[in-house]
Specification:
It is a single chain. Helices cover 66% and strands 1% of the residues. The chain is built from 27 helices and two strands. Strand 1 and strand 2 form a beta hairpin. It is elongated and about 115 Å long.
Length: 547
């Protein structure tokens, strides 16, 4: 360091390499943070993949609702102008859009998924979609017959390809065919002029061609179009489409003149013939209500409301189950937690204050349930608690209860509380034991030497120091309790099940994952709210697991 730098009080302090010391320290600190981040990166990635991402997917599923709009896009758009309050079914245009969407959905086998989704909201709509799906490809056959009767060329796939396909695609398809067709056929491209002049026909034929290529692994040059394509052509021609410059000019011109006299039975009437349910405005109102990509319907259902064409409304009293289950889950989880405290505190005190050899033996007994299957322990309680079970037999034998008045300990809340208290008790004992083990016994002796009674010494000296263990055990037991579903399912009957049992039901049986996700999201919010409340009242910093 130069003399000028040493004598100048305003000059920056330099490091050994000549850089300002402040800058050098910042650089070293930054390197240290990067090293620390790299060290925790594997754990951070693991947590994100196995914990954060699944929770995010669950939360998204609770509002995701793109199945209807993705499967019936034309119908959803056409329904925008329909008024449910008018009390009538939609007009012909909506049914025409439904016809094309249904043809595509049947080929992709997606109409049953939509049927299942909407059936959650309007029971019976599933059969409507399924029966219609089996017959929808017959709608429009009258137009096919009339076009073919006019000119047999309309029956040839080559006619439609020449009319509807882009010239470049026709050329590419010919080259592909000449090469032997060993590679996939070029993806079909609609003629832009035809799309502008015959929009409905172009839309229908493009859907047909892409389905033929992707699902049937066939070529539109080998397949006659769906009946809905002929119907769409009739509608474009009836609307006075400009045919100037279109391919197959003479053929399409003659068809435009003849179409004026075609018989039109009506798409709406055709759907009514298949299934009269399509005339019910409630069906269309349900489709429209759930046509948005996102919905609050699952969350409304989770709090005993329903989303219908009239908006959110409360369900009938005999159908309200979820709020009751949430309330029961919270109350019973708190009772189980309190029971674990009452039973676990004396056991933990003994483990912490008995000689090491004795406490080690007792600790093995505490840990022994962890070595036994949860299903086995729960099934054992079912045997113990039933009317003709061990507990009732003993009570009858010693004369506490009469043989004809045995206690109802199974298939109710009592059975759930008893079984889950036994199962979760070790999770309360271990945190209590780890904290009590750190409390010096000399504190109690000092309190007694100052004149305190045994109770005063315990309550004023020992108990306050064990509260962090109670807090840790309570949080652990409570969170585990609200998520249990195997034990309540086996011993709880209808009055002792938790909300987690309904979540499991919707995931594995009804397959209503959206409602299951909404129920899970609400349960998560309740747990976080209780955690925040506990932190405000007790302080999470006071929770200890020992040390």
């Amino acid at each position: 360091m130069s003399d000028a730098t040493q004598t100048d009080p305003g000059a920056p302090v330099l490091a050994a390499d000549g850089t300002p010391l402040r800058k050098s320290l910042h650089r070293a600190l930054r390197r240290q943070k990067i090293r620390a981040l790299l060290l925790i990166a594997p754990l951070l990635i693991f947590i994100c993949v196995t914990f954060i991402y699944p929770i995010g997917v669950m939360l998204f599923r609770s509002v995701e609702n793109d199945l209807v709009s993705a499967t019936f896009p034309r119908t959803v758009i056409a329904l925008d102008d329909w008024d449910y309050d008018a009390g009538d079914a939609p007009n012909e245009d909506v049914f025409t859009a439904l016809l094309l969407d249904m043809n595509v959905a049947v080929e992709l086998k997606n109409h049953t998924r939509v049927a299942g989704r909407l059936n959650y909201e309007l029971p019976g709509i599933s059969s409507l979609f399924r029966r219609s799906g089996r017959k929808v490809d017959d709608i429009g056959e009258e137009f096919t017959d009339q076009f073919v009767a006019l000119d047999a060329a309309w029956e040839a796939p080559e006619t439609w390809v020449a009319l509807m396909a882009d010239p470049d695609w026709i050329s590419a398809q010919s080259d592909w065919s000449a090469a032997g067709g060993d590679t996939p056929e070029p993806a079909f491209v609609i003629n832009a002029d035809v799309e502008a002049q015959l929009p409905q026909t172009a839309d229908a034929y493009a859907s047909f061609a892409r389905i033929i290529q992707s699902e049937d692994n066939d070529s539109p040059t080998q397949e006659e179009p769906w009946h809905v394509v002929y119907l769409s052509l009739y509608q474009d021609l009836s609307a006075g489409a400009d045919l100037t410059g279109l391919p197959m000019g003479n053929l399409i011109g003659a068809a435009a003149i003849a179409a004026r006299n075609f018989e039109d039975p009506g798409v709406r009437d055709a759907f009514y013939d298949i299934e009269d349910g399509w005339s019910d405005p409630e069906v269309w109102g349900t489709i429209k209500a759930f046509s948005s990509p996102y919905t609050a319907g699952y969350f409304l259902a989770a709090i005993d409301y329903e989303l219908n064409p009239n908006g959110a409304q409360s369900v009938d009293d005999d159908e309200k189950i979820y709020l009751k289950l949430f309330k029961r889950t919270m109350i019973m989880s708190m009772v189980i937690t309190f029971s674990c405290i009452l039973l676990g505190y004396p056991v933990a005190w003994l483990l912490a204050n008995l000689p090491m050899r004795t406490s080690s033996l007792l600790m093995i007994l505490v840990l022994l349930p962890f070595w036994t299957s949860l299903l086995v322990r729960t099934s054992a309680w079912k045997v113990l608690l039933q009317d003709q079970g061990v507990i009732n037999d003993i009570l009858v034998w010693i004369g506490i209860v009469a043989d004809d008045n045995r206690l109802a300990l199974i298939n109710n809340a009592t059975g759930t509380i008893i079984a889950m208290t036994h199962i979760l008790l070790p999770f309360m004992i271990l945190p209590l034991y780890s904290v009590m083990k750190t409390i010096p016994i000399t504190y109690l002796r000092a309190a007694k030497s100052l004149g305190a009674t045994d109770w005063t010494a315990f309550w004023r000296v020992y108990f306050p120091q064990s509260v962090p263990g109670i807090g840790a055990g309570s949080i652990l037991v409570f969170i585990l309790a609200i998520g249990y579903y195997i034990t309540p399912e086996i011993v709880g009957g209808t009055k002792g099940v938790f909300i987690s049992n309904r979540i499991a039901f919707h995931i594995s049986t009804s397959l209503n994952w959206g409602l299951a996700a909404a129920l899970g999201a609400i349960l998560l919010a309740l747990v976080l709210a209780l955690y925040w409340l506990y932190d405000r009242m007790v302080g999470i910093d006071n929770v200890k697991l020992g040390g």
